[in-house]
Please model this.
Amino acid sequence: MAAELVEAMNMVKSFRVSDLQTLLASMGRSKSGLKQDLVGRALRLVQTEYSPELLKNVRQLYESRFPKTSGWLAARRPEGISVAYSSLSSSPNTTSQGADYLNGISKPIPTPAPEVKLVPLPFYQTLETLLPPTELIAHNNEKLQDSQCIFELTPNQADQIRNASELRAGIRSIQVALRICYTDSIGVQEDQYPPNIAVKVNQSYCHVPGYYPSNKPGVEPRRPCRPINITPWLHLSNATNRVTVTWGNFGKRYSVAVYLVRVFTAADLFSQLKLCSVESAERCRERIQDKLRFDPESEIATTGLRVSLICPLVKMRLGVPCRVLTCAHLQCFDAVFFLQMNEKKPTWTCPVCDKPAPFELLTIDGLLSEILKETSEDIEEIEYLTDGSWRPIRDDKEKERERERSNTPEYPVVNICIPEANGHSPAHSSTGLTGKSGSGTSVNATGVTGGGGGAAAVAPAGGAVVDLTLDSSSEEEGGGAGGDSEDTEDSEDSPAPKRGRYNYDKDLVTAY
Model:
């Protein structure tokens, strides 16, 4: 064992920087720093974590650089020590045939996945790579598999975690995140959990995001795949951290990676959006003019585009209008609500057209922001015109009210109790009586009240006094000579009043 250890250390001393980084990354160690730091880290790794798997990794890396090593190994090997291993293939993928003897169970060790790249996440900024994407290897035919990876934190990394601010109680802004994706070297990979996943960190199970129930009938609940925060269960020291991933082996290949990340909130992303991605009002007008420009090949000429001021997400008036640069529509959604919803359930889908809406393509509409400030709360829709201008659109009820106000003539209010208003005496009504009915009753039509048994007189517009207390006997005898004599003054200008069945003026009303 001692001879093999010395032999492995001599191999490590001859490694290049790339070989040292590969060795440290495969064992979950940091691969950053100068060559002398990498050599010292690799030598400490060989001394403290010496195992058959580590020895195979070292030999494999050495033989990939020096294919003819039998003479050199024999010269460096002490006499009397035989070689207890067979030659290994120079391919890096053969490290998966090694064994991990943790707890007496022989397991294949995970290997770095070839060129697997994970998609960048808006709410996570990668600070350092603690474990590059490493494939989960099945060690038997069982459907439920266990794969283990190890890494350690440097003192600087541990201090970053300790001194980080808290996003909320118990959640720090600097975290160690575990990410899992498909093993595919083509393009960037999104986070994807294998079936029956469970994650154990240093013998303690950590929380994995659960399933979201679906509101649509017949649709199964969906689990949002996002980075798993394993920080609370880590050793914030130079001790080795072991992560065991339990997963269902159903034919698909998965890779696991560990990163030191900075976590952002929706408010942080909104501040970045306001600072870096605001489209000016002039540029928005140019975009509108381009869309409404006349096309001679088109049979339909578009003279305007309607845009709602109501957010399609929350059905409320827009606060900060936002849209995606790659979308063809001008309709916006509220930036604050959109970021908050993706913080809880990341979908990054445009709520207007259901196309991808990544954070880096979001922009704030400067023209619509100005329109929202200029319009009142009751305006829910506007229309863009061909010259880039706009006009508000009111709802049907408001239009009907405006139409009624514009078409209704303004007539003066007529008081039926005042005869001067229409040139006639008021109709018989109890509201015009101020006394008791009978022979002593007086009618006040002009503000003058007759009392006692005398006659109540009304002065019409012409100035003549009309007696309202004439009885039938007086009409039969002379027809009311006093009243007729005064009415003759206006006979030349106005036609004679019509006589009814009882030989009195039609407009006159008796008070009894």
Remarks:
- DSSP finds 13 helices and 22 strands in the chain.
- The mean pLDDT is 74.
